[in-house]
Design goal:
heterodimer, A: 359 residues, mainly beta, Neuraminidase, five-stranded mixed beta sheet, five-stranded antiparallel beta sheet, 1 helix, globular, B: 1026 residues, alpha/beta, Rossmann fold, Immunoglobulin-like, eight-stranded mixed beta sheet, six-stranded mixed beta sheet, 32% helix
């Protein structure tokens, strides 16, 4: 009897195995699931495809969101409004000039409208024309893709190395007053030999510049090698910059004082965080940043205060959940929109711990 | 899946079978269903006879289902999902024959059609077709019209290629249609053949004929001149012009680019002519002077009508050309660089002139190297020429000049010539009697070249990027090191070709095909890697070539490292975006003592030359210089006859012997070939790798046999002069040309026989043999293919026995040329809508109307919608096996659902402990009964019963409780013995039968499990009583 009693649980334990044996073949006919590694982007849907028609992308290089729609700039010199749910294009236009090159930066912020009141606007870093173009954001998504004549609110900048001039501007960050009623400053990053951040007031008058070109070997010096994108943490009153070719992030006070670097041009093997050409930067609701690595073909969530790498998603590839030379990301709510530039698409994913972003 | 021989469905020729959404790939196996069902029914009559009616029906139904599922699984079922979408590939004729306004109308038409009739999930793709078919947009839901990018050459139409490309790019998950927008005129390929392929693929081709008709048109059909003429002869140039209606205008003729004064009575050079409707032949007498090729180009310029209406719509077809070769004394073309340096050809030219060889000295940059021009000369002498000023096309033309038209080539060395001049891998190398790669055994300083490749942002950038890499790598010798660095999207900065010996170049070639031209953010890591590679090899010269648009980041420290290592960088800026980019590249080059080149879109063809020139930097290692020595003469060589020894030389370019028929005439250090010669095709070539100046051959000009040496070399290579008595005429025959050769001897007798060796150089750079057939005394003909527009130059060597006995044998050469001045694209005066209609009819397509809104391009009528399938045989088989188990269960296990439910409820109410206690009590009672049976008076009787029942008595009670009885005789016999074993008396067979009959009458509730439970309870009661 004791034997029988002891055997009974064993028999019960066999049941799940039998059940598995029965269910297993069903898995062969398509009922099975495939576990995905964290290294892959858990893609929920893909927006866009290669091409030059609305809704298609020709090497897209910048993305931002207005909270409802995505705004994407590609190498066909187009600014496209994209429905994040379907990928359908709404309003779109081509930059006024593009023979010399195409924009590489786009920022949704506010800008003075025709009557002086602040309205939602797109700041386009018109890189190869060495200027910033500011457009009013169309209010709604048209029923069909529609090429529009955008309302140009302002433009500033010209080629040169003098203060206030640009060589290849890459991104724009707009600092609003605490109550959001007015623009305090406009930050413009650039490379091409200038490799600095120029700061302007609300009237687009030059105030001062932060840093200059360099290899970043002296951590006390403010040296940039292609500062590609910026984010302003208004809570901490900080400016965060991706110093792309020096493979690091820089933290600055809003007046340009260096607070520290995250990452290094020559990282130690056991460095807590490493970047490979960090191009995109997005400040999340929890004050961490999402860094899009062009060279690493991945996104990395980093705590700018501790400098710790929190999570990493993606690896190089052409397949599902894989990424090729991404330039930037946007976040709406829980969904991250990773601009998979080399694959001419946007990967949409709910990345753990990533929520609400401001570029 | 079983595919047994006799039952192999394929062998029986059975197709698949569709049943609703399921398709059976091997439907023959479905025959098993009726066969096995019938068999099963027949077996069931006996095997299931003991079951109740409903149970038997259920068991039978399950068996049938099992058979259906298993046979169905063997028949390889697939689940089909039919697509509902349609993809239209619009093939748009972009060739020059289609008027611009019609092309614009086509784009408008497509946009309107897409707006009106394209459903959201339908796709549109666009392909333009002219000389080549090029995908503009792959079929996509997002495409709503035409967005033209690069369309290629417009001087031809290959509609077939467009259809083939459309078929190849059809998506698999949508039904396909092709919409062809064309004038129906094709100059290459066969549209009808392509339509057959479309029909076979089930893809209808809808056509939209682009209709036009040129009512006012003048075409120069051809210009006719004799293929050969004597110097000083006056010949007639006949210009054949077709006019659709009477027209007037001016005719002008140029001879080798210079206008001929056709009407000396007027100030202008041309002549006014009036054309009748139809064919007009204008004849112009022209005296020819000067030996060589004379190209006559006729141009007609129509007057405007009084109304201002244009009489002539297409200007491309208003020119025609013809070439006449005038025989005479041989001439040499001397190519030397006139860049302000010393005249390296002076002594040589003087010697040749003294020898009676007429020379013309030109700079290669100022001479239009084409076959017609080259054939004015009988030999081309290249004096210390590097490859840079010669385009690839010019190099190929020079090769053709020797191989196909029988011209001679003499290449003389210097510090910029041969391998040191970037000629390794050039098409012209094939024409030389030496190999420009140094011999494997030579120990000499090596060059090391690293290419740093960034994006080439120009149309066909990838193509050009690879071409220039090939050019640079090809021009290196096999003993040089080469490596390629680029920025890859997967690996970042890395070697595409790690620094290594070039060898046969296959590794480099493979690496070049792998280039991705990634978007390099930063020059520094790439330059550092290249420097690291260069320093890791033992090389005398180290050099880097960067190709970029100049926008990656560049730091100064990396340039300092280059300077410190004495490694030079040359930068090639392809389409720099701004002055900043130019500055970046210039800084890189100047700081490291390299060169900066800027290349615009329209000068892409010069890119390979730049790289060759740059590669020469590392090729200086191919030059041998040292103490003067006398080259060794090879005995028995015609070109050295009468020469005992040659003076010493102090340098030459190292090369290697070429196997085969080449003959080395002079040898240098380590047996390097210094002089060599051979026959190449129809022509001959000679090389001398030292120079003709005082650099390496100081004592040569003063050498007494200097003139003799060069005269013999040049005359050996020179094309033999032709006889003015051998005349060639050509006559166009559609895409072919009839070549007629008439040969007479000096006294006017027709040559009875002659052998000809002829070749033709074609406009595409290829050569073709010419086979002349004798059609009469002294008359020979050949019909040659001349389908493409351009110049066809023919060279023919002939030999004939003397016409009269004792006379000299006749030998010589003759040239001729055929020019097709414009493509057939411009010859048609109206569309060919009939062909398009034929295509639509053959493929089940439609002729689209002018109203785009009503065109319904995405029409689904007659389309075979594609079906995606998924194999489900395994799932069906598993279901069948599962049901088979159920079949067994139905027959073997009796489940009373109602009672099971009640039992379950009781169980739930009593609880687990109580159930356990009851079970233990039952087991204890059972053990007690068994003990008693074993020890008591009934034990013996039990043992007896056990033996009678085959030893199953003891476990039978619980076993039979789980099984239902089946009405076989054996079971019927076994059953009563069990009863007896449990304490009853044995029944006779009659009793058993009676009881069985009674049991049947009591109905279903008395059967199976309930009956067994009853029996079990009775047994338990008895044991308790005991």
């Amino acid at each position: 009897m004791p034997d029988q009693t002891a055997r009974a649980p064993r028999r019960r334990a066999v049941l799940p195995l039998v059940a598995c044996a029965v269910v297993w073949p069903l898995g062969l006919v398509g009922c099975g699931g495939e576990a995905k590694s964290e290294a892959e982007i858990p893609t929920e849907r893909v927006l866009g495809e290669p091409g030059t028609f609305p809704g298609q992308f020709a090497y897209p290089r910048a993305i931002d969101s207005d909270g409802e729609y995505l705004w994407v700039v590609d190498k066909a010199a187009r600014v496209q409004q994209i429905d994040p749910a379907t990928g359908r294009a709404g309003a779109w236009w081509r930059m006024p000039e593009f023979d010399l090159g195409k924009p590489t930066g786009i920022t949704v912020a506010e800008a003075p409208g025709p009557d002086g009141a602040l309205i939602p606007a797109l700041y386009v870093a018109d890189t190869h024309y060495h200027r910033v173009m500011v457009y009013a954001i169309p209010t709604a998504l048209p029923e069909r893709p529609a090429e529009i004549e955008p309302e140009l609110l302002s433009q500033f900048g010209a080629f040169g190395q003098e203060p206030g001039q640009f060589i290849y501007p890459t991104d724009v960050a707009v600092l609003m007053s605490d109550d959001g009623s007015k623009i305090e400053r406009i930050y413009v990053s650039e490379y091409g030999g200038n490799d600095r951040i120029s700061v302007f007031d609300a009237e687009e008058r030059f105030l001062f510049a932060i840093g200059g070109p360099g290899e970043g070997l002296d951590p006390k010096a403010i040296e940039f090698a292609r500062p590609q994108s910026m984010a302003i943490d208004t809570a901490r009153r900080e400016l965060i910059v991706t110093d792309a070719c020096n493979h690091r992030l820089g933290r600055f006070t809003l007046d340009g004082e260096l607070l520290g670097w995250i990452g290094s041009p020559t990282p130690a093997p056991d460095a807590p965080v490493k970047f490979e050409f960090p191009y995109g930067l997005l400040l999340l609701d929890d004050s961490t940043v999402l860094v899009t690595e062009f060279g690493g073909s991945r996104v990395q969530q980093v705590d700018p205060v501790t400098g710790a790498s929190l999570r990493t998603f993606g690896h190089a590839g052409r397949g599902e959940g894989e990424v090729a030379t991404p330039w930037a990301s946007a976040v709406i709510g829980r969904e991250t929109y990773l601009l998979d530039s080399g694959n001419n698409r946007i990967l949409v994913a709910k990345l753990p711990g990533v929520e609400g972003g401001r570029g | 899946m079983p595919t047994l021989g006799p039952l192999n469905p394929a062998s029986l020729g059975l197709a698949s079978l569709n049943l609703g959404p399921i398709e059976f790939l091997q439907p023959i196996w479905l025959i098993l269903i009726p066969v096995l069902v019938a068999l099963s029914l027949w077996i069931a009559r006996r095997s299931l006879a003991g079951l109740g009616r409903s149970t038997r029906a259920v068991a039978l139904a399950i068996r049938v289902l099992v058979i259906i599922l298993l046979a169905g699984a063997i028949a390889e079922p697939q689940l089909r999902k039919e697509s509902k979408d349609v993809a239209v590939s619009a093939v748009i004729d972009a060739s020059r024959s289609v008027p611009t306004q019609l092309q614009q109308a086509t784009e408008q038409y497509l946009s309107e059609a897409a707006t009106e009739s394209k459903k959201p999930d339908d796709r549109l793709g666009t392909i333009t077709v002219a000389k080549d078919a090029i995908v503009q947009s792959l079929p996509s839901k997002a495409v709503t019209g035409v967005d033209r990018q690069y369309v290629g050459g417009l001087d031809g139409t290959n509609l077939a290629a467009g259809i083939q490309l459309a078929l190849a790019t059809t998506p698999k998950d949508a039904a396909a249609r092709v919409a062809l927008f064309s004038d129906g005129l094709e100059t290459a390929g066969s549209l009808l053949q392509a339509a057959e392929a479309a029909r076979a693929a089930g893809v209808p081709i809808d056509v939209f004929p682009l209709r036009y008709r040129y009512d006012n048109e003048v075409i120069i059909d051809r210009v006719v001149t004799p293929g050969t003429a004597r110097e000083g002869e006056t010949m007639n140039i006949r210009v054949v012009i077709t006019a659709t209606r009477p027209a007037s205008g001016r005719l002008s003729i140029q001879e080798n680019g210079a206008p001929i004064d056709l009407d000396p009575t007027t100030d202008s050079m041309g002549v006014a002519v009036s054309l009748n409707q139809g064919t007009n032949v204008l004849s112009v007498p022209v005296p020819v002077s000067g030996r060589g090729a004379h190209e006559f180009k006729a141009t007609f310029e129509a007057d405007r009508a009084a109304s201002g209406m244009l009489i002539d719509a297409i200007v491309e077809n208003n020119t025609g050309s013809s070439v006449t070769f005038v025989s005479g004394e041989g001439r040499a073309l001397v190519l030397r660089s006139m860049d302000g340096g010393p005249d390296e050809s002076a002594e040589l030219v003087r010697a040749l002139l003294e020898s009676g060889i007429r020379c013309e000295v030109v700079d290669p940059g100022r001479f239009d190297i084409n076959l017609t021009n080259l054939n004015t000369y009988d030999v081309v002498i290249m004096v210390n020429q590097d490859a840079y000023p010669y385009s690839f096309q010019a190099q190929e033309v020079l090769r053709q000049y020797v191989h196909d038209t029988g011209g001679g080539l003499v290449m003389i060395g210097g510090d910029k010539a041969f391998g040191a001049g970037g000629w390794i891998g050039s098409p012209l190398e094939d024409a030389l009697p030496i190999r420009l790669d140094p011999p494997q055994k030579r120990q000499m300083p090596r060059g090391a070249l690293a290419l740093v490749i960034h994006s080439v942002e120009v149309p066909q950038g990838t193509y050009w990027g690879k071409k220039i890499c090939e050019a640079a790598v090809n021009s290196l010798s096999r003993l040089d090191y080469v490596g390629i660095v680029e920025y890859g999207w997967q690996s970042g900065v890395d070697w595409t070709l790690p620094m290594q010996l070039k060898g046969d170049g296959s590794a480099a070639q493979a690496a070049i095909t792998r280039l991705v031209f990634g978007d390099m953010p930063d020059f520094d890591p790439s330059l550092d890697l290249a420097l690291q590679g260069l320093m890791s090899v033992d090389a005398g010269q180290r050099h880097v070539i960067v190709i970029s648009d100049g926008d990656p980041n560049l730091g100064k420290p990396v340039l300092d490292r280059y300077r410190a290592a004495n490694v030079t960088i040359s930068a090639v800026g392809v389409n720099p975006h701004s002055a900043g980019d130019v500055q970046t590249l210039q800084r890189m080059a100047r700081y490291t003592n390299g060169t900066y080149y800027e290349v615009a879109n329209n000068a892409l063809a010069t890119l390979p030359q730049i790289f060759i020139k740059e590669a020469q930097t590392v090729k200086r290692t191919l030059i041998w210089e040292g103490d003067a020595f006398q080259p060794t003469m090879v005995a028995g060589v015609d070109t050295l006859r009468g020469i005992g020894a040659v003076p010493p030389i102090s340098g030459y370019v190292v090369a290697a012997d070429r196997e085969g028929l080449s003959q080395v005439t002079l040898r240098g250090k380590e047996d390097d070939p210094v002089g060599a010669q051979w026959q190449y095709g129809l022509g001959r070539s000679v090389t001398f790798t030292s120079d003709a100046t005082t650099r390496w051959a100081k004592s040569w000009p003063a050498w007494g046999q200097y003139k003799q040496f060069w005269e013999q070399m040049v005359r050996w290579a020179m094309r033999p002069s032709g006889s003015p008595n051998v005349r060639v005429t050509t006559e166009p025959r559609g895409d072919q040309t009839l070549v007629v050769v008439e040969a007479v001897d000096e006294e006017g007798h027709r040559l009875p026989t002659a052998t000809f060796q002829g070749r033709m150089a074609t406009p595409d750079g290829q050569g073709a043999p010419i086979t002349l057939r004798q059609v009469g005394p002294g008359r020979f003909e050949a019909l040659i293919d001349t389908p493409e527009s351009g110049t066809y130059v023919m060279g023919m060597r002939y030999a004939a026995p003397p016409a009269a006995e004792g006379g000299p044998a006749v030998e010589g050469s003759v040239q001729a040329a055929v020019i097709k001045p414009f493509a057939d694209e411009f010859r048609a005066l109206q569309d060919n809508a009939a062909l398009l209609q034929q295509v639509a009819e053959r493929t089940g397509g439609r002729v689209l109307g002018n109203d785009a809104r009503a065109a319904d391009l995405w029409n689904r009528d007659g389309l075979k919608m594609p079906v995606s399938t998924r194999a489900i045989w395994l799932a069906v088989a598993i279901a069948g096996i599962g049901l088979f188990l159920a079949d067994v269960a139905v027959r073997r296990v009796r489940l009373d659902v109602v009672k099971a439910y009640h039992a379950a409820r009781r169980g739930m109410h009593r609880g687990r402990d109580k159930t356990g206690m009851q079970l233990e009590g039952l087991q204890a009672a059972r053990a007690k009964a068994q003990e008693r049976l074993r020890t008591g008076p009934g034990a013996e009787a039990q043992d007896r019963d056990v033996s009678r029942s085959g030893g199953h008595a003891q476990p039978l009670a619980p076993t039979v409780a789980k099984r239902k009885f089946e009405a076989t005789d054996e079971q019927a016999r076994a059953a009563p013995s069990s009863k007896v074993a449990l304490g009853g008396e044995a029944e006779t067979p009659e009793q058993q039968k009676r009881r069985a009959t009674e049991q049947k009458k009591t109905g279903e509730e008395e059967e199976g499990m309930s009956r067994l439970l009853k029996a079990k309870r009775r047994a338990q009661d008895e044991m308790k009583d005991d």
